[in-house]
Design goal:
By secondary structure, the protein is mainly alpha-helical. It folds into 2 domains: 7-152, Orthogonal Bundle (Ribonuclease iii, N-terminal Endonuclease Domain, Chain A); 160-227, Double Stranded RNA Binding Domain, CATH 3.30.160.20. The protein has 12 helices and 3 strands. It has helices at 7-12, 19-25, 29-35, 42-63, 69-79, 82-92, 94-97, 102-106, 113-131, 133-152, 160-171, 210-227, and strands spanning 177-183, 190-197, 200-207. It has a 3-stranded antiparallel β-sheet, covered by helices on one side. A hairpin with a 2-residue loop joins strand 2 (190-197) and strand 3 (200-207). The longest helix has 22 residues, at 42-63.
């Protein structure tokens, strides 16, 4: 009897020949440790990171011939960063499918950006092993190309921490300083970040992780600094 596709396979548009690869891609180390399972998604994550980087680089290089090497690098960084990967994971429903240990489950691991991003890369690595580069290219292009186009148009997610660092070094000759505090129980922590330039608060942001809060604070500070004459 033929195996039925999982909901995740149907959303991604790939039916695995070897379903154990999909299972491995969704196995977080916390689950493997608790259940004494010998396989986690970490090796697949390593592979998927490389496959994703290659495909995004290929797409960017061919589609945007007018972008400099530096701008291509920024586009790639914005496309393959943790925030973008987590967004893709949420669209695909990876959080519902990933296998977590009890501790991670209780601490809100199904919506943690780091866990979602790692699982997305692991899934891409599994698709590459199971289906090859052509199918991997098609899946990655479908999931990430709209984000790449939006970035080039000046929309969508950007690495605002890097952008702010470059702009502040140019305009005020100082690097930004981030101060972060957290509140709430472990499974519902909220982080608030404030970024300072020359001792003055320039932006504030909140998020479910320190990195997310800092990016949002950097985005606000970046806009304010540009408005004040920073390009």
């Amino acid at each position: 009897m033929a195996r039925r596709s999982t909901p995740l396979e149907r959303v991604v548009g790939v039916r695995f020949k070897d379903p154990t690869l999909l299972e491995a891609a969704l196995t977080h180390r916390s689950y493997a440790f608790e259940q004494a399972v010998p396989i986690t998604n970490e090796r697949l994550e390593f592979l998927g990171d490389a496959v994703l980087g290659l495909v995004v680089t290929d797409l960017a290089y061919l589609a945007f011939p007018d972008l400099s090497e530096g701008d291509l690098a920024k586009l790639r960084a914005a496309t393959v960063n943790m925030t973008t990967l987590a967004e893709v994971a949420r669209e695909l429903g990876i959080g519902e499918a990933v296998k977590l240990g009890r501790g991670e489950e209780l601490s809100g691991g199904r919506d943690k950006a780091s866990i979602l991003a790692d699982a997305t890369e692991a899934l891409l690595g599994a698709i590459y092993l199971d289906q090859g580069i052509r199918v991997s290219f098609r899946v990655i292009e479908r999931l990430f190309w709209p984000r790449m186009e939006a970035y080039v148009r000046g929309e969508g997610a950007r690495d605002y921490k890097t952008s702010l660092q470059e702009l502040s070094a140019q305009e005020v000759g100082r690097l930004p300083e981030y101060r972060v505090h957290e509140e709430g129980p472990d499974h519902q922590k909220v982080f608030t970040a404030t970024v300072y330039l020359e001792g003055h608060a320039y932006g504030t942001g909140t998020g479910r992780s320190k990195k997310e809060a800092e990016q949002r604070a950097a985005r606000e500070a970046f806009g304010r600094l540009r408005q004040n004459g920073g390009g």
